[in-house]
Design goal:
It is a single chain. With 337 residues, the chain is α+β, with helices and mostly antiparallel strands. It has 3 domains: 4-67, Uridine Diphospho-n-acetylenolpyruvylglucosamine Reductase, domain 2 (2-Layer Sandwich), CATH 3.30.43.10; 72-225, Uridine Diphospho-n-acetylenolpyruvylglucosamine Reductase, domain 3 (2-Layer Sandwich); 233-336, Uridine Diphospho-n-acetylenolpyruvylglucosamine Reductase, domain 1. The chain is built from 7 helices and 20 strands. It has helices at residues 30-40, 92-101, 195-203, 211-225, 246-255, 273-279, 308-326; strands at residues 4-8, 20-27, 45-48, 54-55, 60-67, 72-77, 81-87, 126-127, 130-131, 136-143, 149-153, 174-184, 233-234, 243-245, 262-263, 268-270, 286-287, 290-292, 300-302, 335-336. The strands form 6 sheets. Strands 6-7-12-10-11 form a 5-stranded antiparallel β-sheet, with no helix packed on it. A 4-stranded mixed β-sheet has the order 1-2-5-3, with helices on one face. Helix 3 crosses helix 4. The radius of gyration is 20 Å and the shape is globular. The structure holds uridine-diphosphate-2(N-acetylglucosaminyl) butyric acid (EPU). The site of uridine-diphosphate-2(N-acetylglucosaminyl) butyric acid has 18 residues, from helix 6.
Length: 337
């Protein structure tokens, strides 16, 4: 087992923050993961996947386990569907492309989401009317302390909007090693009701879209609004969209008649945090090496060598301002480390 010391994590987190791991181990197979856990499980550990949903505000004292397990295979199929098993370290978008090349449908709307497959269930990734839970079959995870492998079904994961049991009751207890998705092989059910997808397909002059067309539309939309982490460091949506009561919403709508919103239930309304942040005046604001993206106010960015703690201070200022102006609390979607 090779434990390295003082390893920069700059290229391992999509925010591009130059924090260090005091101790770091690259995990390329299950055997190595178990070996490391056998001796290190009782010490502080930090599991790193694609590094796409975290803001590093300091160096990491714990041993960083960098999960790079690879492999994709169809493990079960009928004429209608296939169950695909992907190892945790596979890049999510490359996996989507592999599925499209194999004519497997269900995750085309989730094209270009940064991160790895192993972390996708933790926050139930979602975009353009589709969430991972819609196609999730099961996943395998290793219990850190006992090294026992457990299978979690869709129900076991308790998925919700950007939530799962791995962020709640079982936080920090398991390492997801592979994920199985159930995808369609024919009669693909397309989700193209989302306004932006509809208009993108129209402008591409596609009236009978395939799953590859939907993916292309999603890629175009994302590229027009969201910065590419390879060029500008970011973690996608920094905040979750808040859900408020109908009474609170009516008050807000009185002051801001054009506030965009989605009805969650009879008594609850979701308001886009991006709109709140833009209305609070933060969209496109730059403070030296960091700021708020100019095309999507929900995304905080690192232009070059920003410190995580400065970006976090900006996030807190945004939260306070939104709270003062609208009396709405916005929570971070990104994990603050
Ligand atoms: N809006 C603004 N100003 C902004 C950004 C958005 O007024 O700067 C308004 C838009 O005009 C629109 C509404 O907010 O009326 C919603 O915007 P958009 O459709 O871009 O989606 P979102 O709510 O900002 C969510 C997800 C994204 C996902 C998109 C598309 C969350 C926290 N974010 O964003 O997910 O791609 O929907 O489905 O739920 C991510 O999680 O990293 C992510 C990018």
């Amino acid at each position: 087992m090779t434990i390295q010391e003082n390893v920069s994590l700059k290229t391992f987190n999509t925010f591009g923050i130059d924090a260090k791991a005091n101790k770091y181990v690259n995990i390329q197979n299950l055997g190595k993961l178990k070996e490391v856990l056998k001796t290190e499980a009782s010490k502080p550990l930090f599991v790193l996947g694609g590094g796409s949903n975290m803001l590093l505000t300091k160096d990491i004292e714990a041993l960083v386990l960098h999960l790079n397990l690879k492999g994709i295979a169809i493990i079960e199929e009928t004429e209608d569907y296939a169950v695909v098993n992907a190892q945790a370290g596979e890049n999510w978008h490359e996996f989507v492309l592999w599925c499209l090349d194999n004519n497997l449908g269900g995750i085309e709307n989730l094209s270009l989401i940064p991160g790895n497959i192993g972390t996708a269930p933790i926050q139930n990734i979602g975009a353009y009317g589709v969430e991972l839970k819609d196609v999730f079959h099961s996943c395998e995870a290793i219990h850190i302390l006992t090294q026992q492998t457990k299978t979690f079904t869709n129900q076991d994961c308790k998925f919700d909007y950007r939530e799962s049991i791995f962020k709640q009751d079982l936080k920090g207890q398991y390492i997801i090693t592979n994920v199985k998705l159930k995808l369609s092989k024919r009669n693909h059910k397309l989700n193209i009701a989302y306004g932006a997808i509809k208009s993108e397909l129209e402008s591409l002059k596609i009236s009978n879209p395939t799953i590859k067309d939907v993916s292309k539309a999603v890629i175009n939309i994302r590229q027009s609004k969201l910065p590419d982490p390879k060029e500008i460091g970011n973690s996608g949506s920094f905040f979750k969209n808040p859900v408020i009561s109908l009474t609170e919403f009516k008050k807000l709508q009185k002051d801001f008649p054009n506030v965009p919103h989605y009805v969650v239930s009879d008594s609850e309304i979701k308001v886009p945090a991006g709109w709140l942040i833009e209305t609070a005046g933060f969209k496109g604001k730059r403070f030296g090496d960091y700021g708020v993206h100019n095309k999507q106010a929900l995304v905080l960015v690192n232009y070059k060598n920003a410190l995580g703690k400065d970006i976090y201070a900006l996030a807190q200022l945004i939260q306070q301002t939104v709270s003062r102006l609208f009396n709405i609390k916005i929570e971070t979607e990104v994990n603050i480390i």
